[in-house]
Q: What sequence folds into this?
């Protein structure tokens, strides 16, 4: 069964003015659809066909650029649409809050670390909050469509929160003002979803 573009749980204009409808529509129907189609082409008839995306990425030969770029793109955007939500945002609480406080001392300490990772990722890439086995959390960033599931990216663990800092994610509305886009993202985080991912990952 081929991978399919996941449906969004909200309308393209639901994140305005933080993220504009045109950006959301192009991002979902062109970029994410493109990664999905190219991933399916790249795995057809190979050992990866029929496996879960997590399994494919965790066991990836990083020299396989078609699966690396498009499998990463498929997975990363699927996570991204789930961890932002205009309505169901919740509040950071429970075990995840404890893990973040343990590592970053305060919410602002975490926000600073995450924002810095997102702002300083040179060129295209992603900022992540990852969970290591045992429950410790870590902020990091990766280039292009890499993520922490892939071997040897130097940023280990299960990603539970991700921010796309490719220009296609923000340029129509923010142009070169990536830090403003990062700030806006913090108002959209669906903490209920991130906490649920933390509970399954630790
Ligand atoms: Mn993107």
A:
């Amino acid at each position: 069964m081929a991978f399919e573009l996941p449906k969004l749980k909200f309308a393209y204009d639901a994140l305005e003015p933080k993220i504009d409808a045109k950006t959301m529509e192009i991002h979902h129907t062109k970029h994410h659809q493109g990664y999905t189609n190219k991933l399916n082409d790249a795995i057809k008839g190979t050992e990866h066909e029929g496996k879960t995306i997590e399994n494919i990425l965790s066991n990836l030969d990083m020299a396989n650029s078609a699966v690396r770029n498009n499998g990463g793109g498929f997975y990363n955007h699927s996570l991204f649409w789930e961890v932002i939500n205009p309505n169901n945002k919740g509040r950071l609480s429970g075990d995840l809050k404890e893990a973040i406080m343990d590592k970053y001392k305060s919410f602002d300490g975490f926000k600073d670390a995450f924002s810095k990772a997102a702002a300083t990722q040179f060129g295209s890439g992603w900022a992540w909050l990852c969970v290591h086995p045992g429950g410790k959390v870590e902020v990091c960033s990766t280039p292009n469509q890499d993520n922490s599931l892939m071997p040897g990216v130097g940023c280990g663990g299960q990603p539970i929160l991700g921010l796309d800092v490719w220009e296609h994610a923000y340029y129509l509305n923010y142009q070169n003002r990536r830090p403003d886009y990062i700030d806006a993202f913090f108002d959209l985080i669906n903490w209920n979803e991130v906490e649920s991912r933390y509970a399954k990952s630790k």
In short: The first helix runs from residue 21 to 43. The pocket of manganese (II) ion is lined by residues 27, 31, 77, 164, 166, 168-169 (CB under 6 Å). The chain has a mean pLDDT of 96.
